[in-house]
């Protein structure tokens, strides 16, 4: 009797999940790619094929270029803050494992990641308020004049970076902690016997071993930062029209083009550009963090 | 309970064929009961009418109308789903093409897109007659496509000046500004500053920041009162019309107030909130502010005045997007909402100005005199509106993004050539959008 091929069962077992993945992930991406080549108005009956026209128009669209610039600044700003701060905090917490209040430190650092985004952004909006905010009161003690945090184009970018970093650090710390706990104690022992200080052991033992974890955290942080929207929207909006400077980010620009201007094809072209950027940056991160010892 | 426990408990275990059949029958019976229960719970005659609004402050109004309609439809259930305007626009964009919108919906000028796409059915002849008989046809433009009426106007947003009478009296001013030049002169007298010279109470709160098209709409109002307009129509097509002297004067007025005289600054509280807190002496806004002040600052002493020449008017119309048995109830609801008694209630309780002509406002004006600037405008006061063309919103949004930067650009203050270059570049962008949609008029 002919036996069934070995691959049949795993393939059959995976098929439902793969089917779902294809429907929920692959198909929308393929459809976005298709739409980007059409003048696809959400309500118009005529949706002509325009080839690469949407992409050509994007390249000279000042709002899109501003959005891509702002988003990139925010994404890299968040990355640059999150990785070192997250790693340092994780190392500090890891060093206090088993001691009093270590659980409290872990919880308080992770808390911003689980707090609902809109109320958190509202709280930060108050902190950044030019006239009543505690931040200006704080810098006032050092003789620094009050700043229009949410109205100055450069400062409002800084505010957005601070808000997004505050949210992402908790998650990074959690993942780094898992990584640090998996570093074998014997390696630290060996380093200590070789005369390494705690800092040197962290630098030359822990960090190289954390490369895969750092890759994961940096990829996740960068991708989520490129997709920010609600933070920028809440910081600049007000029901009574007393808003702040709206930091134009890519997702906000896409939403505006889709649902206010009804240009879904054009917004799809923006989404394709975002996809390419994220793919290229993820590829670069893989290259940067790859484990050279295996080469 | 035993029945459920027994039948469910047999699943998954080896059973005799008879037992198995019994289990399946039990499950089928349960399913039938589950499906039938909701049907039994509500009588077959009950109808649910869903109202989609972009103005949450109108919920009590629609509920009141719904309650009145129950005299005709006793089992009618009215559900008012009111969300923020921008979100409302998004849900319309997603639901109208798929036929999943509410039974009665509000729309502003964006209705043009849906009418053009054939997504809104024509109303019954009686509704068309009702509109023709009770409304000034200039106010029905946004609900009209190719000469046919598709919706019923309900209310309109229109601007007027709000000014704090106490602050005016302190500054020795006993009447509102009459010309646009007066506005800046007044703002200079009204502004209050701290010891460093920074304004603490703005003389005139201008819309200087924020996303969306609001900045451009406010600029348009000032532009109009300088004798200009944003878009002009020529033979059914349109062209940007603000790169000229009126456009320059309007932008200069912003720069004078923000950069030169600093009667206002972008980081100050603005708009209705600032007015209610006594942090601005005057500002231009729609009539809804009256209702907001009544709730949040009932002791504020203020008055209103019409703008020198005219104001941007944004009509809000009601449509019934779905054909079917419920559409007649929906049109009855629309007509009920537009009964004089309800419209006067709307004005008194929300301060939104009804569109219907021939209403007697005297009783409401006796209670709320500030509404006078909105309902008793001078005969030569002009109401202009955003053209009912599909790229209108995009043109305004893109212009707003440019204006926000220009308002605080010190290099433009006192620099007519710089202002002209800015306006020329912005107008070119507006024309480019019109050309893309094949709507650009020849110069």
From TrEMBL, chain A:
InterPro entries: ABC_transporter_permease, MetI-like, MetI-like_sf. Belongs to the binding-protein-dependent transport system permease family. CDD domains: TM_PBP2. Pfam families: BPD_transp_1. GO terms for cellular component: plasma membrane. The chain crosses the membrane at residues 7-27, 67-92, 104-127, 154-180, 264-284. It comes from Bradyrhizobium cytisi. This is Sugar ABC transporter permease. It is found in: Cell membrane. Residues 68-285 form the ABC transmembrane type-1 domain. Coiled coil: none annotated. One of its GO terms (biological process) is transmembrane transport. The keyword Metal-binding does not apply. SUPFAM superfamilies: MetI-like. PROSITE patterns: ABC_TM1, PROKAR_LIPOPROTEIN. It is a multi-pass membrane protein. The keyword Transmembrane helix applies. Keywords: Cell membrane, Membrane, Transmembrane, Transmembrane helix, Transport.
Automatic annotation (TrEMBL), chain B:
It comes from Bradyrhizobium cytisi. Coiled coil: none annotated. It holds the Pfam family SBP_bac_8. The keyword NAD does not apply. GO terms for molecular function: maltose binding. One of its GO terms (cellular component) is ATP-binding cassette (ABC) transporter complex, substrate-binding subunit-containing. Keywords: Periplasm, Signal, Transport. This is Extracellular solute-binding protein. GO terms for biological process: maltodextrin transmembrane transport; maltose transport. SUPFAM superfamilies: Periplasmic binding protein-like II. Belongs to the bacterial solute-binding protein 1 family.
């Amino acid at each position: 009797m002919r036996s069934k091929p070995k691959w049949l069962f795993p393939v059959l077992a995976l098929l439902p999940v793969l089917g779902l993945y294809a429907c929920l992930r692959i198909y929308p991406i393929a459809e976005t790619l298709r739409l980007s080549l059409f003048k696809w108005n959400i309500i118009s009956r005529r949706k002509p094929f325009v080839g690469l026209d949407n992409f050509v128009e994007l390249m000279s669209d000042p709002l899109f270029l501003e959005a891509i610039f702002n988003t990139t600044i925010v994404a890299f700003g968040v990355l640059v803050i999150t990785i070192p701060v997250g790693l340092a905090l994780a190392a500090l917490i890891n060093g206090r494992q088993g001691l009093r209040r270590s659980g409290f430190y872990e919880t308080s650092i992770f808390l911003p990641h689980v707090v609902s985004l809109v109320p958190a952004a509202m709280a930060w909006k108050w902190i950044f308020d030019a006239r009543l905010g505690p931040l200006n009161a704080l810098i006032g003690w050092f003789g620094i004049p009050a700043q229009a945090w949410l109205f100055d184009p450069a400062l409002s970018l800084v505010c957005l970076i601070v808000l997004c970093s505050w949210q992402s650090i908790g998650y990074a710390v959690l993942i780094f902690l898992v990584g640090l706990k998996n570093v074998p104690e014997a390696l630290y022992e060996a380093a200590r016997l070789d005369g390494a200080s705690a800092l040197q052991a962290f630098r030359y033992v822990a960090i190289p071993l954390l490369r895969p974890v750092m890759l994961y955290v940096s990829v996740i942080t960068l991708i989520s930062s490129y997709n920010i929207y609600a933070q920028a929207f809440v910081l600049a909006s007000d029901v009574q029209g007393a808003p702040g400077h709206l930091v134009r980010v890519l997702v906000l620009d896409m939403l505006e083009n889709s649902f206010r201007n009804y240009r879904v094809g054009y917004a799809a072209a923006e989404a394709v550009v975002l996809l390419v950027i994220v793919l290229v940056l993820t590829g670069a991160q893989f290259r940067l963090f790859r484990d050279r010892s295996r080469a | 309970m035993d029945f459920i426990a027994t039948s469910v408990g047999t699943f998954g275990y080896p059973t005799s064929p008879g037992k198995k059949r019994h289990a399946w029958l039990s499950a089928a019976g349960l399913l039938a009961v589950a499906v039938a229960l909701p049907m039994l719970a509500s009588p077959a005659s009950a109808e649910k009418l869903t109202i989609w609004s972009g103005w949450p402050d109108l919920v009590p109004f629609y509920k009141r109308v719904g309650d009145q309609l129950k005299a005709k439809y006793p089992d009618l259930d009215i559900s008012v789903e009111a969300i923020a305007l921008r979100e409302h626009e998004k849900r319309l964009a997603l639901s109208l093409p798929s036929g999943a919108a509410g039974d009665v919906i509000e729309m502003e000028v964006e209705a043009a897109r849906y009418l053009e796409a054939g997504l809104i059915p024509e109303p019954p002849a009686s509704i068309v007659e009702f509109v023709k008989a009770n409304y000034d046809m200039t106010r029905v433009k946004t609900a009209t496509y190719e000469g046919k009426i598709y919706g019923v106007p309900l209310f309109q947003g229109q601007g007027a000046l709000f000014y704090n009478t106490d602050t005016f009296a302190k500054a020795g001013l006993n009447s509102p500004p009459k010309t646009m030049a007066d506005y800046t002169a007044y703002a200079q007298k009204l502004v209050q500053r701290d010891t460093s010279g920074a304004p603490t109470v703005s003389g005139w709160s201008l819309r200087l920041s924020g996303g969306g098209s609001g900045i451009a709409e406010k600029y348009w109002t000032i532009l109009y009162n300088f004798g200009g307009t944003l878009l002009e129509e020529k033979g059914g097509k349109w062209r940007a019309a603000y790169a000229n002297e009126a456009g320059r004067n309007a932008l200069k007025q912003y720069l004078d107030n923000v950069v030169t005289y600093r009667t206002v600054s972008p980081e100050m509280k603005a708009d209705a909130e600032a007015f209610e807190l006594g942090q601005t002496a005057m500002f231009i806004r729609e009539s809804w502010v009256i209702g907001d002040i009544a709730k949040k600052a009932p002791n504020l002493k203020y008055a209103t005045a019409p703008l020198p020449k005219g104001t941007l008017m944004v009509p809000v119309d009601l449509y019934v997007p779905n054909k079917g048995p419920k559409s007649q109830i929906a049109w009855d609801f629309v007509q009920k909402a537009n009964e004089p008694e309800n419209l006067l209630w709307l004005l008194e309780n929300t301060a939104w100005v009804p569109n219907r002509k021939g209403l007697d406002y005297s009783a409401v004006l006796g209670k709320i005199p500030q509404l006078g600037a909105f309902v008793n405008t001078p005969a030569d006061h002009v109401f202009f509106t955003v053209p009912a063309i599909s790229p209108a919103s995009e043109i305004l949004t893109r212009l707003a993004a440019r204006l926000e930067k220009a308002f605080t650009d010190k290099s433009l203050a006192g620099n007519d050539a710089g202002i002209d270059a800015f306006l020329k570049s912005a107008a070119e962008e507006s024309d480019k959008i019109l050309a893309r949609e094949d709507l650009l008029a020849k110069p």
